[in-house]
Design brief:
- The chain has about 375 residues and is an alpha+beta fold.
- The protein has ten helices and 13 strands.
- It has helices at about 25-35, 40-50, 85-110, 135-140, 160-175, 200-205, 260-275, 295-305, 310-320, 325-340, and strands at about 10-15, 20-25, 55-60, 120-125, 150-155, 180-185, 210-220, 225-235, 245-250, 250-255, 285-290, 345-355, 360-370.
- The strands form three sheets. Strands 5-4-6-7-1-8-13-12-11 form a nine-stranded mixed beta sheet, sandwiched between helices.
- The longest helix is centred in the first third of the chain and has 27 residues, at about 85-110.
- It is globular and about 65 Å long.
Amino acid sequence: MEDISPIVSILGIGTAVPAFRMDQADVSQRLAEALREQPHSARWAKRIFRQCGVETRYTCEPNLLEPAPGCRYFSSASIEGVPTTAERMATYKKESVPLGLEAARKALSDSGMTASGITHLITVSCTGQFLPGMDAVLVQQLGLASTVNRLPLQFLGCAAGLKAINLSRQIVSGTPSAKVLIVCVELCTLHFQPSGDKEALFAASFFGDGASACIVGCAGAGHKGIFQLGGDYSVLMPESADEMVWEVGNYGFHLYLSPNIPRLIGRWLPAVSGHLTAGENRPELWAIHPGGRGIIDAVQDVYGLTDEQVDSSRAVLRRYGNLSSATMLFVLDDMRRRLRDRRSGPASGMAVAFGPGLTAEMARITYLPSVVGQEQLIGDAR
């Protein structure tokens, strides 16, 4: 009898954002006011805020909506009022759990599963930490089994969400009865720096807060609108270790993003992704982590993609900003909605994200509008 591989898939997706919405033009104006003693920095900030592709974002920190003189995260003459790393981590502990729970419950509902069916829990974040960690809290508050296999992925940056998806596929491929819950929570705005330096202003221009979750398991008859997961690949790009740096400081985490990143992606990505696309038709779907407008542009240029093929990534960047590890599932959720709305048939695709290293994390995906049975395995997703 022919051995038929299981259809390892994303069975359900959930997303969540905090209550406080940041309008890009408003933040830019208030930041420029805070930088009035540094006119060159103020002009640069206005330009980058206008050009980065973000219109709105969300934050867990209401102080970031205050007028410039009362915002503790904006540039000030004294460092005394700026939130310390300890304060920021206390806010992270308080605000991250409700967001993670909301996203996880939505993913469970979307998949049609109950918490008791989850065998593995992967929690992902690079913007905060506490112990016992979010994994332990989610087990208790979601009602997961106390024996669930918990795998925290910490401080891996923007590529970590896709890393978790790829790891889940490997788990389920080896144990088809497994059901993996992934929960990504990132509170990036807690790390805004009160600085007029270009690096700090660039990081402040497009990061936002949010959480996403998904269930990875074997699909069966009756599942609809899912992404089958295929081959994956992770690689450190050469000559790029210092291009993306994320370090812990006394006043939050300090991020450095090199302006060379889009150029390096354009240079190295075709070579490192070739084995996932070689000998097959060019993927129709492209889930690109919107690490910034320049990164989407670079991937679009390298592969000659249409505006429609990158529209989900640009839409997520425009509405939510870069949510670090949580962003990929926002992109896949938006893409799934569009595919459902136009009643798409099966379509093959690629997911790609980038993180410190520079790390390129990649995966083959295939959208399946429905699953009739195990015999419906799409070759492109292998």
